[in-house]
Specification:
The protein is α/β, with parallel strands linked by helices and 330 residues long. α11 crosses α13, α11 crosses α16 and α12 crosses α16. A hairpin with a 4-residue loop joins β6 and β7. It has 16 helices and nine strands. Strands 2-5-8-1-9 form a five-stranded parallel sheet. Strands 3-4 form a two-stranded antiparallel ribbon. The chain has a two-stranded antiparallel ribbon with strand order 6-7. The longest helix is centred in the last third of the chain and has 25 residues. The protein is elongated, with a radius of gyration of 25 Å. It has three domains: 149 residues, Rossmann fold, CATH 3.40.50.300; 42 residues, no CATH class; 119 residues, no CATH class.
């Protein structure tokens, strides 16, 4: 168990810079206590990947990351034999430094269990995560990119924390159980079987108060008005139907750029400076060129600033001292 209580989980996450609420911290605590995987779903850029990284910092654990992609196979995830090492071993034992690959194959068949032992097997992320003496954080990122067949392959691992390796005719049991987090951008629905085995959190883009708090952590030297502008600017960008809405980290980059430029607000003539920080596809760049879109977004930003000003003023007077008991829970 990584944390002694739900309140400790919340406090330690906030101390390492991850601003969240009691519901998320409680789910993290439960997943840790009961060795249950955690699924994080939500739009890209909402902060899903940052949560397991923050847990690792808070609990002082290493991170093992499995980046999912279409066409990923079990060799990439569980592991594979190091054929060059096995070939070298077979040649040494066989006393034939110049033996052919056919000789090598024949020798492998004769050696049986000696040549298929664990020492010749190069582990993938899943196997590495359960062979450690000390638990780690295992991040299985963008699980929605893989096939349902591959998803089914994970069920044994997520249920009983073991891996069957047919090549070795062996099942590897966990020496330690990793704190396991799966993230999904909802490109497809996950199967019921994997959902049943996991705790679940939907992580959406943060409220204006929380986003301002997150950005303020990165740029505490900026003024209230600047943080208010950045928060409203992010809201306006996300309402403009971009193909890739800006993430929290991108809004932090915008804040740092504003600080470096010595400005409190962005004006239409600064499009060349700031557009590349949030427009990351040709479609989004073309959208900005239509009907003076950048100026329109800035106009919306000014209106949004006044709408959210009371909430942010209250947040600056309460939650921004980062005391756990004062964090606003939505």
């Amino acid at each position: 168990m990584l944390f002694s209580s739900r309140s400790e989980a919340l406090e330690r996450l906030q101390k390492v810079g991850y601003i969240t609420n009691r519901q998320v911290a409680s789910t993290v605590y439960n997943s840790s206590k009961f060795d249950k995987p955690l699924i994080l779903e939500g739009p890209p850029g909402a902060g899903k990947t940052e949560l397991p990284l923050a847990v690792a910092r808070a609990a002082e654990l290493d991170v093992i990351r499995l980046q999912c992609y279409e066409g990923i196979d079990s060799d990439s995830v569980i592991g594979r034999y190091d054929e060059s090492l096995r070939l070298l071993y077979s040649r040494i034992l066989n006393g034939q430094q110049g033996s052919s690959e056919n000789d090598h194959d024949d020798f492998l068949n004769k050696q049986g269990s000696k040549i298929v032992s664990r020492q010749f097997y190069r582990p993938g992320p899943l196997l590495r995560s359960i062979e450690r003496a000390k638990p780690c954080v295992l991040l299985i990122d963008e699980i929605d990119k893989v096939s349902q067949k591959f998803e089914a392959m994970l069920l044994q691992f997520l249920s009983v924390w073991e891996l069957s390796i047919p090549e070795m005719e062996k099942t590897i049991h966990a020496q330690s159980i990793p704190f396991t987090v799966l993230t999904s951008n909802r490109e497809r629905d996950l199967g019921h079987a994997i959902l049943r085995r996991c705790n679940y959190i939907f992580i959406d883009h943060p409220t204006p108060e929380r986003e301002a708090e997150i950005v303020r952590l990165k740029t505490p030297d900026l003024s209230f008005e600047t943080h208010l502008f950045i928060t409203a600017f992010g809201m306006s960008l996300r309402s403009y139907k971009f193909d890739k809405p800006p993430s929290i980290s991108e809004m932090q980059h915008i804040a740092v750029t504003m600080r470096d430029e010595g400005i409190d607000v962005i004006t239409p003539d600064m499009e060349d400076i700031f557009a590349p920080l949030f427009a990351k596809t040709p479609e989004d760049l073309n959208l900005l060129k239509k009907r003076e879109a950048f100026a329109s977004i800035l106009a919306d930003t000014s209106q949004t600033m006044e709408e959210i000003r009371p909430k942010l003023e209250e947040a600056f007077n309460t939650t921004f001292d980062y005391s756990p008991q004062e964090v606003t829970v939505n």
